[in-house]
Specification:
Number of strands: 16
Number of domains: 3
Structural class: alpha/beta
Largest sheet: 5 strands, antiparallel
CATH class of the largest domain: Alpha Beta
Mean pLDDT: 89
Bound molecules: adenosine monophosphate, zinc ion
Distance between the termini: 52 Å
CATH topology of the largest domain: Rossmann fold
Shape: flat
């Protein structure tokens, strides 16, 4: 462990502060993950990459890390649920959409997109968290937290749900600066539907709803948790009552993180996260990324081969392009940057192939490059320690690769080994030279039954087209034996597991 200080802008104190883990040399942090109602887009990944770079920089100075990032697999509101998760949630809406037709129910949809997230995570060479909890796996703890908040006078019940009482937490607003009740009331006027709420700012901890697609039994009947409670509960479950750092995109500062603080600190009476780091939004070619503007990209839209409708972008080039701007500045993603990034990544690959070739030969001579590369690495690391200054770190990395490639024919074995060690270090810091692990989907994420059903349905469709009804019926029987009900509807063939009952 070095004694270098690692500084990051802290949204809470509004200044660049040194990260100061409660346990020296051990950073424990939580990053908000995605809601799995669709494929994650490159903006989401820019935020996840900030957490990844924090992780790598902490490792580079010899710190231990415990990194928890969640999967939100309970649907919440399509509009910001300022106070009240009523109305249609994102996952229910996704299920009704064209893309949603292939899923039997909302659980399958969530499972599928959670698996896709992990694939994209590996594609972009992000390190694995220590724990990746899912909201649906922690409903019991969320219910318990809500009960405790009621017991301590921080929450109350109405006919529609349980609300956190904002006036019971006087420092509400300390993260976002949204302290004026009138602004908040103004902002929520349109979405508040519960007349029994005591204060317009109060936000939902539990929503009573026996018709919701995902519902659990609670002391208040059937329903589902509010969005904010999952993150504070899961962060504390895995990291303890006080955590060193919490990350997410800038849109989460308010209300999500403000509400997390209110819940967590009301439960423990201790400061929740000491440091908050927020990633500014990514724009595409100078515009807000939006399906409406035709500039909306998922990771797979860009990296899938052209034969599969993608753009065949090198995943590491995409990674480099997404980290090319510092996390704290609004970032304009452009195809010009992506092209430059592809050239840079190729330079790293060429250098790697070349030094590996030379290092394998026992060419005599002294190391003539190592000390200069060490100085360049120190520059890159110092830049990362300085509020994740990725542009400066990448510039240093490019200087190093230029040096290696420039010496091409003059590298001896010792120099090549030094260059290889440098490339490994740069890769550990920035992840732009090679993939650290193979791209695989953990078995648990694959739904073999769904794959089998899709294959059989495709075969049945072909059989019916060929008027081979005997075969089509045989396939239906086969599906029946698998516990699958097939429904031929005007919108096409749908299926569901019989065990799913009403879902
Ligand atoms: P969501 O699935 O909407 O909860 O988003 C997952 C994460 O991505 C959150 O931390 C968001 O703040 C972040 N995020 C969403 N859109 C963007 C964007 N355009 N640029 C950067 N981060 C984003
Ligand atoms: Zn969260």
């Amino acid at each position: 462990m070095t004694d270098k200080s690692f500084t990051l802008y802290n949204t809470l104190t509004r200044r660049v502060d040194a990260l100061a883990p409660l346990e020296p040399g051990h950073l424990r942090f939580y990053g908000c993950g995605p809601t799995v109602y669709s494929y994650a887009h490159i903006g989401n990944f820019r935020s996840f990459l900030t957490a990844d770079l924090i992780l790598r920089t902490a490792h580079a100075i010899g710190w231990k890390t415990t990194y928890v990032t969640n999967i939100t697999d309970v649907g919440h509101l399509t509009e910001d649920d300022f106070t009240d998760p009523s109305g249609e949630d994102r996952m229910a809406k996704a299920l009704r959409s064209k893309e949603g037709e292939r899923f039997a129910n909302v659980w399958d949809l969530a499972r599928y997109y959670a698996g896709a997230l992990l694939d994209d995570w590996h594609t972009l060479n992000l390190r694995e968290p220590d724990v990746r909890p899912r909201a649906t796996e922690h409903i019991r703890e969320q219910i318990r937290a809500v009960e405790q908040l009621i017991e301590r006078g921080h929450a109350y019940e109405t006919g529609q749900g349980i609300y956190f009482s904002v006036p019971s937490f006087p420092v509400y607003g300390k993260l976002s600066g949204n302290e004026a009740a009138t602004d908040l009331e103004q902002a929520v006027r349109d979405v508040v539907v519960d007349e029994q709420k005591k204060d317009a700012r109060d936000f939902a901890l539990w929503k009573k709803d026996p018709t919701h697609l995902m519902q659990w039994h609670s002391p208040w009947g059937w329903g589902f948790p509010g969005w904010h409670i999952e993150c504070s509960v899961m962060a504390q479950a895995y990291l303890g009552e006080e955590i060193d750092l919490h990350t997410g995109g800038e849109d989460l500062i308010f209300p999500h993180h403000e509400c997390e603080i209110a819940q967590a600190e009301s439960l423990t009476g201790k400061p929740f996260a000491r440091h908050w780091a927020h990633t500014r939004f990514l724009q595409v070619e100078g515009e807000k990324m939006s399906k409406r503007f035709n500039n909306y990209y998922t990771v797979r839209d860009l990296v899938a081969p052209e034969s599969e409708g993608g753009r065949g972008v090198d995943p590491l080039a995409l990674r480099l392009a997404l980290i090319a701007g510092q996390y704290r500045k609004p970032y304009n993603f452009t195809f010009a940057t992506l092209r430059d990034s592809a050239r840079h990544v190729q330079r790293f690959r060429d250098a790697l192939a070349h030094v590996d070739r030379i290092a394998a030969e026992e060419a005599p001579g002294d190391d003539r490059i190592g000390p200069r590369l060490d100085a360049i690495y120190a520059r890159a690391l110092d830049a990362m320690l300085d509020d994740l200054n990725t542009p400066a770190a990448i510039a240093a990395a490019l200087d190093g690769v230029k040096l290696i490639n420039g010496m091409k024919d003059h590298l001896n074995g010792a120099s090549a080994r030094a260059a290889r060690a440098w490339l490994d270090q740069i890769n550990a810091l920035l992840g732009i030279v090679y993939h650290e692990t193979e791209t695989t989907t953990p078995d648990a994420e694959v739904d073999p039954l769904a794959e089998q059903v899709e294959a059989l349905l495709a075969e049945r469709k072909a059989a019916r087209k060929a008027k081979d009804y005997a075969r089509a019926d045989a396939i239906r029987d086969e599906l029946d034996a698998l516990g699958i009900e097939v429904m031929d509807t005007p919108e096409g063939t749908k299926w569901r597991r019989k065990s799913d009952f009403g879902f």
